[in-house]
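Duplicate of earlier report; FtsX-like permease family protein input re-posted below.
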Amino acid sequence: MFKNHFRIAWRNLIKRKVFTAINILGLAVGFGSSILIYLFLNYHLSFDNFHANSDRIYRMVTEEHRDDIEYDPSVPPAFAKTFLNEYDYAEKVAKIVNYDGLVVDTDINGVESKFKEDIVFAEEDFFKIFNYPLVDGSNNISLAAPNTAVLTETAANRLFGKTDIVGETFVLENDRTIQITGVLKDLPKTTFLKSELFVSFDNVKDFFEFAGSESWGGITTNLQCYSLLRPNQDIGTIETALLELPKKHRAKSKNKHIYRLQPLANAHLDPVYGGLDPTLLWVFGVIGLFLIIIASINFINISTAQAFYRSKEIGVRKVLGSFKQHLFWQFLSETFVIGLFALLIGVGLAILFLPSFNALFQIELSAYNLLSAQFIFFLTLVLLIVSFLSGSYPGILMSRIVPVLALKGKLDHNDTGGATTRKILVVAQFAISITLIAATLIISRQIDYAVNTDLGFDKDFVVMVDIPSELDPVQLRGLKERLGQITGVENVSACLSSPGGSNSNWGTSIKYHNKAEPEEFSIEIKAGDTNYLNTFDIPLIAGRNFFENDSLAEVLVNQRLGEKLGLNSPEEMLGKKFEASGGSVKATIVGVVKDFHDTDFTHAINPVFIGAKNSWFSELAIKINNTNTALTLEQIGEEWSNAFSEYIYEYRFLDERVAEQYETEQRYLSLSKVFSALAILIGCLGLYGLILFYVGQRTKEIGIRKVLGSNVANILALFSMDFFKLILIAGLFATPIAWYLMEQWLQGYTYRTEIHWWVFALAIFSIMVITLITISYQTLKAAIANPIKSLRTE
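Output:
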């Protein structure tokens, strides 16, 4: 029986090639998009699930309670040893410190090569907590001794040109000789570690003294602490016990710490502690579902529209003994055949566009992922569900046709049913498309607002260049003078980081005006020399610029500090004493600058102080003009390389760095645009199929209208208005839904654009224009045809 069903299904599909092609193409695009989204979701949901004891691995994190709550994916440096030695909850505890852009110098057969590498300083037990095996398959990884390192196969080939390098050495930051004790297998892409070179934790003190200390005085997000708990531990009990640690070690601090345990499985998808927002995964999962739904709606609409033309076939089959269930399964068979072809084409489309998808999200999904048992189960399930849902209603509808009426030719389109259902489904299609278009417009406006709004400082044509830490002041001054003499260079400033667009934010407690207790809030440190304000064009609104001395004696602050202190004017802060960074900074406030965005738009502007301390400087900010930029950059590179021949010259434009803060949003905006376009494409295919049906159904009517004087525009308006009414109804449903969803999304931004009514009007109008274009060809073709031929059709 089933063989016969499929044979008849194939014949019917071949007979109606255009409608079959429309259904297959629409479903194929839906399947292909959903496959890419499935791979994307599966990638993000599989992070760090390959470790032997992943269910017992936790990251130690901190809630900092000031005037508000801040969440840090780290703990004070002293926490790890205390947690391991004073409690009996963990088998292993280990710290790592991420340090970017260190110079690695290798010597291979007398040929010296320099590389800039991101380094992880790791305690030995780190590799006993996590499953990152050596190339020989063992976990005998040794980093206990100072000046030792392990690296991945890829890093070994990059640095040494081979992987058999155990016992060889490299020089780190032109100072420290490091011996290689092992080569790791390449790390999976779905792990939180991005660096490929690991150095003994003892060496971190050479570069970041605080991270290598046993201090309870602060937190740096570069330091991460992980623990392997003993089996069957209660996390609530542990976190309750840890409430005593701040009372014991931080009793004098007004910055209250609460230490939490974050499961490793949550680390990648916890936006509170810097992970990806899982809402985005839900959004794109829903978009994938929408695309399948739109394609299924196309199939249902076209199938029910064809019911009239297949009525005689159904009447004959019923007279010859077919039961309703036979006809039902026949239509399901047709749907399955269409779905199977569409699925095969969809898989091909997914493979074709996979490289572009990877490039957009900077991930490495492989076509081999399509061969997994999990993926094959997913495809099979989707095919069966889509086939059943898409074929059930047309099958039920057509199996109810009365054979006597069908055979006598007295059946009209109302008897075949489905007209109201088609309108409801078309409204659903339009509503989904309007929602996606409106969401894309609002996301685009917010990103444009964040990137192009006045940030309170000049980010254009500012070049940021790294400099060695703790550079000799005389050498630094000489370099700045030489750079300032280059034609095209307008200003040069040594600083810790740029005012905004940097990941190097550094917060600390503050004591104001000799108060005995610190303030409830923290303040951001923006170390810079006297050229800092001019280079970044930051306005000074009260007082004067500071004078540089051997010690940090004078500072500038922003308006926000006065607001947090409850002062009425910036001038009230001038001349006041200022203490920060645990007492290492004791200075006088001599000037107040206008507020600038020190972080992205998801956060409020922080209190900031700017002061000159040579040991804090890590970058040069070079303001250039836009005349012969390439030559200016080349000359800057020459001067820099002459000063630091042992280091690697790299530069970044500040505006690029600012834009990177919204890189994730930019990627998801691009994907939203693509999937919105696909949703519209699928919907247009369905509209094209429906208009073919409607034009054929109303051929005689068109002829009569032309004979009675209607022109082409009248006939086009006749068909268009039917769809425009449905679009307006869809807009009434889509607008509040899209507004609510986007309002929730914008809540994540402290500084945000407004949602305007015209966004939804534009989305509705866009759908109208696209619909008009879609239906115009067939409508105009029928409208300009000879009416005599139209009247002879019946």
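The longest strand covers residues 90-108.

Merging into the original ticket.
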